[in-house]
Amino acid sequence: MTAQKLSIVKAINASLRTALENDPKVLVMGEDVGKLGGVFRVTDGLQKDFGEERVIDTPLAESGIVGTAIGLALRGYRPVVEIQFDGFVFPAYDQIVTQLAKMHARALGKIKLPVVIRIPYGGAIGAVEHHSESPETLFAHVAGLKVVSPSNASDAYWMLQQAIQSDDPVIYFEPKRRYHDKSELDTEAIPGPLHAARVARPGTDLTLAAYGPMVKTCLEAAAAAEEEGKSLEVLDLRSMSPIDFDGIQASVERTRRLVVVHEAPVFLGTGAEIAARITERCFYHLEAPVLRVGGYHAPYPPSRLEDEYLPGLDRVLDAVDRALAY
């Protein structure tokens, strides 16, 4: 029996352990990933079992961490870099978007950079500024980067395996507010494609599309709406670059309405691109405009105000009601 119930933290740890066991070229790097096991204990026990040369505690220097990972990838390694918190990635932004993302095209395909950058992201943990941001769109906008986010233990395990095996750089966003949510994981299952959307709950009246931490919120919204006789389909997008527009279109053609939900600001967020594309593709199927629910176009607030900033059940259900009213 290979199926077991694990938290997302434990699933990521198991995935890293599997990768380290299966490929001697896989390295884990980051601030406090070794002896401490990471601030969220995601890498707990890995340095003890695989040694300091493969699970590497780095200086507090994100640009240097990513730059070193690029150099290691050029020499045939597969580095898995941890950025300790979402807001800490910006010192490394130049390395990521001007070097990591561009090298394959710059070398006309002769150079590959199999680097994974793990970033715990999102809010609802009561943290200070720079610890609760959702910068995924900044990376999804950059050609040459794959950008993904799991919402459950199974995807956390398998999507990280696929990211590490990819010859292209992958930004792997981990929904830290969901780290301790448990779900079934089968470590011998055959995973689906890395960038394919998944129907998390079938429905007929409207599609709620989300990724990462908002998938659970949308499932809760669908359960609440069912009590009022509304059937909502929940689509777990899983990937922000590339986006599975075919999967979204198939769902919208069934339900004829779409609400896109994410923690990041609505302004120029992932939902904006999805709304534009689906309006083009599904114009004659839609019975209401595509609506978006997300954070506000403002700096992330102090923790005492984050419940007002983050989209919750009420804001999602309000958008559902507005869409169904057309």
Strand and helix layout:
Elements: E1 3-7, H1 8-22, E2 26-30, H2 46-50, E3 55-57, H3 62-74, E4 78-82, H4 93-100, H5 103-106, E5 116-121, H6 136-140, E6 146-148, H7 153-165, E7 170-175, E8 182-186, E9 198-201, E10 206-210, H8 214-226, E11 232-236, E12 239-241, H9 245-255, E13 258-265, H10 270-281, E14 291-295, H11 306-309, H12 313-324
Parallel strand pairs: 2-3, 2-4, 4-5, 5-7, 6-7, 10-11, 10-13, 13-14
Antiparallel strand pairs: 1-8, 6-12, 9-11
Helix pairs in contact: 1-7, 3-4, 8-12, 9-10
Name a few traits of the molecule:
Alpha-ketoacid dehydrogenase subunit beta; 326 residues; five-stranded mixed beta sheet; 35% helix; oxidoreductase activity; alpha/beta; globular; seven-stranded mixed beta sheet
In short:
The protein is 35% helix and 21% strand. It is built from twelve helices and 14 strands. It has 326 residues and is α/β, with parallel strands linked by helices.
Textual characterization of the structure:
Its cofactor is thiamine diphosphate. GO terms for molecular function: oxidoreductase activity. This is Alpha-ketoacid dehydrogenase subunit beta. Its EC number is 1.2.4.-. With 326 residues, the protein is an alpha/beta fold. The protein has helices at 8-22, 46-50, 62-74, 93-100, 103-106, 136-140, 153-165, 214-226, 245-255, 270-281, 306-309, 313-324, and strands spanning 3-7, 26-30, 55-57, 78-82, 116-121, 146-148, 170-175, 182-186, 198-201, 206-210, 232-236, 239-241, 258-265, 291-295. The strands form 3 sheets. The chain has a 7-stranded mixed beta sheet with strand order 3-2-4-5-7-6-12, sandwiched between helices. The chain has a 5-stranded mixed beta sheet with strand order 9-11-10-13-14, with helices on both faces. α1 (8-22) runs parallel beside α7 (153-165), α3 runs parallel beside α4 (93-100) and α8 (214-226) packs across α12. It is globular, with a radius of gyration of 19 Å.
